[in-house]
Amino acid sequence: MLSEPFKQSNESFLLVEECSHSFPSLTIGFTTKNNGFSKKPFHSFNMGLHVDDLDQNVIKNRQKLSDLLKFPLNKWVGAQQTHETTIQWVTQEDAGYGSSDYKSALRKTDGLMTNQSGILLTMCYADCVPLYFIEPESNLIGIAHAGWKGSVGNIAGKMVEKFEASGATPSKIRVVIGPSICQSCYQVNHIVIDEIEKVLSFDQVRPYTQVGHDQFQLDLHKLNTQLLLNSGILRNNITLSTYCSSCDDHLFYSHRRDNGKTGRMMSFIGWKE
User: Fold this and answer.
1) Number of folded domains in the chain?
2) Has residue 1 been placed in a domain?
3) Of 72, 218, 234, 260, which residue is least crowded by CB atoms under 10 Å?
């Protein structure tokens, strides 16, 4: 049985304790929906600045997380995520972009990476898969936002390629796959399945099960795991969360469960100075 890597450190967030213990200067985790300032239907710890919540409430939530993590808000970097596969290299010059307003977030970006300390990379989610990448020898870290479009676009493999181009060896990269919607809660049609068939080899186990006419339950964790293995990541270096954003409704928002009107959790990763 899988051991859950995300441990609840506070009502408002979970940390990947194994990584925190291995790398004491690394801040890595995922927020919950609890103990914040937002009102229904975004109650209460909404991190999304693009979901019609009051910006002042979201900024108060973000400032609270900043205080809890002891990572200044003006050192965060966020993106205007578009379910694509663009990955941006981040430096100190980008610090603060998207931290307190959506307009300044990096445009059309679903992956962030850096090798610099003092920057917190952030992405927002409400069912999609958060992917965290760490290669400590080169000080490289990254996060990616992988819904089904980003997954079949192989944003996981593209991040590995970017790491490799920056001096990392794929077999030394560690990847954490965070809380997202589980296979039982996520049904798709043949359009999605046809795209998946384009990125998997014939001998790989399919990450979906047909449950009805043109209805398939899709395991996004399994799909991204297979793509990471194809990119040279060692299976022992891939850690999977067992949390489901839809099932675990006491902890998380879910776009599907909440019929599209809901808040956003945030993944975060950064080396402290």
Assistant:
1) 1
2) no
3) 260
